[in-house]
Amino acid sequence: NSAEPGVASLLSQSAVQTAAAADERPRLLVVDDQRANIQALFQVFQADYKVSMATSGEQALALCRSQPPDLVLLDVVMPGMDGFEVCRQLKADDATKDIPVIFVTGHNDEEAETRGLDVGGADFISKPINPRIVRARVKTQLTMKRQSDLLRQWVYIDGLTRVCNRRCFDEHLASEWDRAARLGAPLSVGLVDVDLFKRYNDHYGHPAGDECLRRVAAVMTASLKRPTDMVARYGGEEFGLLLPDTDAAGALHLAGQIREGLRLAQIDHVESSVGPLLTISVGLCTWTPSVAGSAEALLAAADAQLYLAKSRGRDQACG
Ligand code: GH3
Ligand code: MG
Ligand code: MG
Ligand code: MG
After folding, report:
1. Ligand 4 centroid, distance to 279 Cα (angstroms)
2. 10 Å Cβ neighbour count for 28?
3. What is the value of pTM for the model shown?
4. Predicted pLDDT of residue 5
5. What confidence tens digit (pLDDT) does each residue in 265-318 have?
6. Distance from the alpha carbon of residue 198 to the mean position of ligand 3, in angstroms
7. Whose CB among 51, 147, 261, 309 lies 3.0–4.6 Å from 318's, allowing a Cys bridge?
8. Residue located nearest, by CA, to atom 24 of ligand 1
């Protein structure tokens, strides 16, 4: 599947990769008040999974929040908080709601099974467990989880350049705006537009144009310094930069680095009126968020600076 490396590189680029641990086996949390039951499941899974255990609902919730597992095998009847309540609370919390829960219980009646699915359980297995069946069901749930995680990632990735897309940029901009407002920190945004790109397509052809956009995206990505900096394809031949905790001088510096990186990449553009190489124009704006402003207005101000850069002859950053 050619989709996966792209997702992987985006994950590491934006530093959200959490699977960096040396032990890459899927992590299971087994929850049961009876040690013998835990032991039975441990035997089934210890070879292929990293198994941790909890002997109460309260302990299970705490573990799911501190070290989220890939899947929970959850007993129903326990003293204190029962399995249904544990599952309900897991599903009510954004941080844990996507962890699949499989109930493992001796109460294999219709009522219990329906209730388990109602509170968000993914599957229901009865005790005494059959090792082959429980293994197969866990595997199925983990495959489905992996697929939905991948799909979720792809919703935020631009298919051509593999950088973040506009949806991703807009959502991050909104949250960074709120964060910067809370902290009284400066927030910079940039809009980067390829100069005379219509002529590039007309001369080199649309597939070459696509490849060119990939190279521009790669140069921009390579120029970012901080894990919180972000580049996104905002649309067409236009890219967005989101630079938290960055003042105007820092943003201008980064724009210079990107333009220098592009110059070193030496992408021919013989039809450009600026010179023989591909160039970009950059509009920058830095604000310290306040109630008077908005993320949209900040972006509009950067767009006005981009327009200025174009009108002053392109191949420059204004801000
Ligand atoms: P300016 O310097 O004023 O920005 O001129 P420009 O030619 O870059 O601007 P214009 O908006 O007229 O043209 C943008 C071009 O970008 C036109 C469009 O076909 C091309 N483009 C947009 N998206 C893609 C894409 O995904 N692939 C390719 N190859 N071209 C694209
Ligand atoms: Mg029990
Ligand atoms: Mg444009
Ligand atoms: Mg352009």
Report:
1. 10
2. 24
3. 0.74
4. 43
5. 999 999 999 999 999 999 999 999 887 899 999 999 999 999 999 999 999 999
6. 9
7. 309
8. 236
Nearest CA to ligand 1 atom 31: 236
Predicted pLDDT of residue 22: 60
Surface-to-core class of residue 126, CB atoms within 10 Å of its CB (0-12 exposed, 13-18 middle, 19+ buried): middle
CA–CA distances in Å: residue 266 to residues 33, 34, 216, 271, 278? 65, 67, 11, 14, 7
How long is the chain? 319
Closest CA to 219 of 248, 189, 192, 249: 192
Catalytic site residue from 4, 237, 238, 260: 237
228 φ, ψ (degrees, to nearest 5): -85, -15
Helix (H) or strand (E) holding 67: none
Per-residue pLDDT tens over the stretch 222-262: 999 899 999 999 999 999 999 999 999 999 999 999 999 99
Q: Give residue 251's identity as a one-letter amino acid code.
A: A
Which residues in the chain land under pLDDT 50? 1-21
Q: Is 176 part of the annotated catalytic residue set?
A: no
Q: Under 8 Å CB-to-CB from 272, ≥6 apart: which residues?
A: 195, 196, 199, 200, 278, 279
Closest CA to 228 of 282, 191, 186, 184: 186
Q: Which helix (H) or strand (E) holds 234?
A: strand 230-235
Q: Where are the alpha helices (DSSP H) in the chain?
A: 3-13, 35-45, 57-66, 83-92, 110-118, 131-154, 166-183, 197-204, 206-223, 248-265, 295-311
ipTM over 0.85: yes
247 CB neighbour count, 10 Å cutoff: 15
